[in-house]
Hints:
The chain is an all-alpha fold and 203 residues long. The chain has helices at residues 9-25, 32-39, 43-49, 53-77, 82-103, 105-116, 120-143, 151-161, 163-166, 168-173, 179-199.
Amino acid sequence: MARLPAPEPVEARILELAANHIRRYGLRRTTIVSIAEDAGMSHANVYRYFPSKAALVEAVTDYWLRPIEAGLRDIADGPDPAYDKLERILSALQRAYRDKLDSDENLFELFADATARSTAIARRHRNRIQGEIQRVIDEGMATGAFFSGDQRRALAFVFDSLFRFLHPVAVRLDRDARPDQLAARFERVLQQLLRGLVQGLRK
C-alpha cells in the first residue's frame, strides 16, 4: 500500500497546534483564531490550508491516526510468517486504540465520533487498516498457513470476532474496564480466531 505524503511544514504545524488545543480545551472551546495566534499567523492564513473548523478537525483526526496505520504497515511488510504477523498486527491495533483512549481522550472522541458517523476520514482509516490486515491474510492463504477459500469472508471473520476490541465506539464503551482484564479477554478471542483461520472456516 502506498505511503501517504507528509503534510508540508506549515500545515503540519497547524495540525499539531490544533491537536494540542483540542487536548487542552476540548473541541468546543478550540477556535481557528486561537490556533492562528499560537501559530503566529492570521486566521485567514489558517483558512488557506483548511477552509473550515470542520475540515481542520477532520485533518487533525487523520494526522493523529497515521502513526497507527504506519505501524501496521511495518508489521505487514515484515519478514515474519503470516500467522505471527496477523497475531502481531491485531494485537498492535488493539493496544494502539486502548492507549489512545487512555492517553489522548479528547482526540479519541473525535475518532469515535467520526466512526459512528461514517465520515470520509473514518472510512479511509478503516480501509487502510483492513488493507494491511488483508495483505497478511492473503499471504497466509498463499503459503498454506490459513485455510479459507474466501478472502472477504476471512477478513469479515477477523473484524466480527474482534469487534469489541477494534471498533472505536466499542473501545470507548469499555473505557472503565480494567486494562489487564480486557487484554486477557482479547487474547482469548484472538487465539480462537487464529485457530479458526488455521483450521478453516466452516460455511
